[in-house]
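Table S2 (text version). Query chain:
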Amino acid sequence: MDFAITTLLNALTLISILMLVGLGLAISFGLMNVTNLAHGEFVTVGAFAVYFIQSMGGSFWLGLAAAPIAGAVVGCILEFAIIRHLYSRPVSTVLATWGVSLILQQGLELTFGLGAKPVTPPIEGTLDLFFTVYPAYRLILIGIAMATLLGVILLISRTSFGLDIRTVIQNREMAEGVGINTRRTYAIAFTFGAAIAGLAGGLVAPLAIVLPQMGVNYLANAFFVVIVGGVGSIGGLVAGSVFVGGLTSILNYQISPSLAQAIVLLAAIVAVRLRPNGLFNGASR
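Corresponding structure-token output:
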């Protein structure tokens, strides 16, 4: 029982991280059809924001508040300087954002130096969950991730901004015809997605090795999550996160992480082959 609950909670932790990283990517890739290869660097920027605040004597919570702001600033600059000029040129977007990801990695390396950066969690202890004990911070991470997901769902479904996003996605020309500023809507949506990725980086910083290249692994897993679950769907995002995160957590107990990652990739390819539109959206064909 103890092993089963610990495995479940570890899976929930990874699923929560993937949901947050994938949530930002779902907005840019799934909803806006922008293949942003610099999305992983938003995660890295968020993690380094927490490290920087702590290194200056600030608290983890102050750093966590700064993480989505840092991600949003970088995302806003990227959208304004590059992305908005390439919405109709997807291949150019891929090349441009790949170059930006390399520039951001090198910029962080020059600014903060080589080597892993330590980030201390706000709570060091564990909680007794009757059948097992589990790190308190991981439970906090799960709670924040779930609250963020709920907030985004409410924003998309219950606000005028969410309505604008859905209208622009369905028919950009019609949205412009009814007076919606599509350029501004895209810019805000892209920046919002970058902010969520920055939050994910801040949350994962105490659990991960904070390096300028750390975002690469999260980018790959986020694409798995969005594509396997179903592009453009919050339900698909959750399904993809459960699929990738749950399978990864289970396999990590049995085999090496590198082999587990390869098996998850193979399983994702099979899932996409059987359900091309996603686990949540698509019917088999």
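Notes on Table S2: The two ends are 39 Å apart (CA to CA). The mean pLDDT is 88.
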